[in-house]
Amino acid sequence: MSTSIAASLPPRRRAYRMLVLTELRLAWRTPSYLVGGVGIPVLLLVIFGSIPSLTQPKKEFGGVSFFTIYTPTLMVIVLIILGLLSLPSQMASYRQQGVLHRMSTTPVPAPALLGAQVAVNILFAVVSIALLLGVGAGAFNLVLPVQFGWFVLSLALAVAAMFGIGPCIAAFASTTRVALVIGGLLFYPLAFFSGMYGPLTVYPGVVGQIAKWAPTGAAYYALHASLAGHFPGWTALGVLAAYAVVFSPIAVRWFRWDVERSH
Fold first, then answer.
1. Model confidence at 135: pLDDT above 70
2. Which distant-in-sequence residues (6+ apart) come within 8 Å of 63 by Cβ?
3. What's residue 253's pLDDT?
4. Confidence (pTM)
5. What pLDDT digit, counting tens, does each position of 80-108 carry?
């Protein structure tokens, strides 16, 4: 989404790049990015990988370990934290503090700042997931994706889906509190369907079927399959693409400097 925003503003590419760099500097000083989006998932990976019983293959998990099937869940959790909590709360904070109101007097269009935030959060997500793969493979013998192309496609669609939903929250949240409440209400069910509270493979039949149509469930299934060297399946990829196609234009269309002006 951020790429399309930049491409639609050719005379302002330099200003857009400056926005991204400024947001990146601010994000580097913000604990929620490094701690929540990078530190916690990697720490959980290390904890799970250090418990021998979790790294042993289990029959009930299809012959793989809990550690193996939980790694893609951690990747999805990264996208939830950054896409649904960090990004909307940061934009709502700008709105609440009057930063967006002051920027409305400049030539910078509202979607450009939103695009810069999306770009920065995606960068942190990529770094976090790369660390999960690197630490997992280097320290705990995690098997890296054999079909790397399918993994990249699955991850790209998962990112597009989650970072389509998050900016929609930013478009309508008037304060940081509102953004965190909305994000929090979405966090628990979406985390549930990512397998955070238990492997999706052991969920009851109906719950497992519902998970396939949730953005986080589809992301888990696609990432898990591609990590194992399998085709992710058109259902998972299609669900992720659908969420991205539906929510991203809504965010771009309705994001304004002031919430009152978006209605």
1. yes
2. 57
3. 85
4. 0.88
5. 999 999 999 999 998 888 888 787 777 77
Say how many CA atoms lie within 13 Å of 54 toward its Cβ. 18
Cα-based distances in Å from 133 to 47, 62, 222, 230: 15, 21, 16, 17
Selection from 77, 79, 99 nearest residue 90 by Cα: 99
Integer angstrom CA distances of residue 171 from 51, 139, 182: 42, 41, 12
Spell 36-66 as b/e; 16+ CB within 10 A means b.
bbbebbbebbeebbeeeebbeebeebeebbb
Please check whether residue 2 is in contact with residue 118, taking contact to mean a CB–CB distance below 8 angstroms: yes
Of the candidates 102, 104, 113, the one whose C-alpha atom is nearest the C-alpha of residue 6 is 113
Helix axes 176-193, 87-96, angle to 10 degrees: 170
Residue 149 token pair: 């192309």
Query: 87-96 and 148-172 helices cross at what angle (nearest 10)?
Result: 30
Q: Which two tokens stand for residue 100?
A: 């967006």
From 147, 31, 138, select the one nearest 86 (Cα to Cα).
Answer: 31
CA distances from 38 to 81, 105, 212 (A): 10, 35, 26
Q: Are 162 and 126 in contact (CB under 8 A)?
A: no
